[in-house]
Amino acid sequence: MYSLARALLFKLSGETSHDLTLKALNVAEKLGMLSLLYGKPAWLKSTGIEVMGINFPNKVGLAAGLDKNGDHILAMSKLGFGFIEIGTVTPLPQSGNPKPRLFRLPEANAIINRMGFNNKGVDHLVENVKQARKAGFDGVIGINIGKNAATPVDNAQDDYLICLRKVYEHASYITINISSPNTPGLRSLQYGEELKALLLALKNEQQNLSDSTGNYVPLAVKVAPDLTEEEVAGVAECLLETKIDALIATNTTLNKEKVEGLKYGAEGGGLSGAPVTEQSTLIIAEFAKHLKGKLPIIGVGGILDAEDAQAKMDVGSSLVQVYSGLIYTGPKLVKECVKQLES
Q1: pLDDT tens across 240-272, in order?
Q2: Is 180 a known active-site residue?
Q3: pLDDT at 2
Q4: How many other CB atoms sit within 10 Å of the CB of residue 135?
Q5: N or C: which end of the chain has fewer CB within 10 A?
């Protein structure tokens, strides 16, 4: 059934088909069709795996970027995911980069996007999380936070702190996105003293919020796949020194070598899907070597089948996330990955 739907959707532009699919899923959820198709949601299970002090009903999550505003939490939670990550969200609403900004490369099972953190702002997202909780959803929600494009990189810390404070009471964990290639200057925050200063500020505020609310919400950092071995070592040292709770590896890549010559292969933006599978897994392995089990890793990047998910686990991931693979394979990917990682 998904193969037929995909054939029709792929006749439309990437962003149009994306929006239509999510709206259709919302309708299907309200009509009870998703429960009939996919059975009891994973989040209703009482057993699972503990990571960051959180009980995850299974090891397969939805990566950030698909549901930027938390408009589709209930629908996505019915597809078998053990956790949902929404965002990236910024303090103020922003339209993102000019269209077209999302391109499918079906010959390579890949996507290039330069969305630019288009979202309706943190207050809108928080309200959607509240409504999902009121509707009965009690699963794991990660909230991915970033900075507004208009905010200078030197003031990025302010934006992250605003988002952290606003989402803290509504998130199971919070992801600090410093690795999107589509916000100018953002990736510079992954290195050296800039990274350390940002993480120390966020950890300090996390402690303040934990003390005031009586609830400790873990912080994860999401990194790019384009790091050198030396950069990985530096980031890993900083994560351990600042006592960050988890690493998410990886975001999209700027390396387009594997899609050269393909239609849209030269488009600007981050490349995801099959071309990033190997590099993402290599980066996870490199981080695992330096972190030595002291910090859990959530593996993401080019998971198109259960074997890809297993490969991420084999090199050191505790959990995995999917996004582009969902576009090409459909919801069956979630079930197949869950089954593989539970065996």
Answers
A1: 999 999 999 999 999 999 999 999 999 999 999
A2: yes
A3: 86
A4: 10
A5: C
User: How many residues comprise the chain?
Assistant: 343
Q: How far apart are CA 137 and CA 154, in angstroms?
A: 38
CA distances (Å), origin 251, targets 60, 116, 279: 16, 14, 11
CB 125 within 8 A of CB 70: yes
244-277 burial, b for 16+ CB within 10 Å, e for fewer?
bbbbbbbbbbeebebbeebebbebebbbbbbbbb
d(CA 300, CA 62): 9
- Model pLDDT for residues 74-104, shown as the tens digit of each residue: 999 999 999 999 999 999 999 999 999 999 9
Nearest-angstrom CA–CA distance, 13 and 263: 14
- Nearest one of 229, 231, 235 to 247, comparing CA atoms: 235
Residues 39, 90: Cα–Cα separation, whole Å: 34
Could you tell me whether strands 54-56 and 49-51 are parallel, antiparallel, or unpaired per DSSP bridges? Answer: antiparallel
Domain edges within the chain: 2-342
The arrangement of secondary structure in 2-342, i.e. its CATH architecture, is Alpha-Beta Barrel (3.20)
Enter the tokens of residue 50: 């503990």
Q: How do residues 145-176 score in pLDDT, each as one tens digit?
A: 999 999 999 999 999 999 999 999 999 999 99
Over the stretch 122-152, which tens digit does the pLDDT of each residue have?
999 999 999 999 999 999 999 999 999 999 9
| Distance, C-alpha 171 to centroid of its chain | 14
Omega before 100 cis (within 30°)?
yes
Q: How deeply is 134 buried, as exposed, middle or buried, from its count of CB atoms within 10 A (0-12, 13-18, 19+)?
A: exposed
d(CA 317, CA 31): 36
- How would you classify the pairing of strands 319-322 and 140-145? unpaired
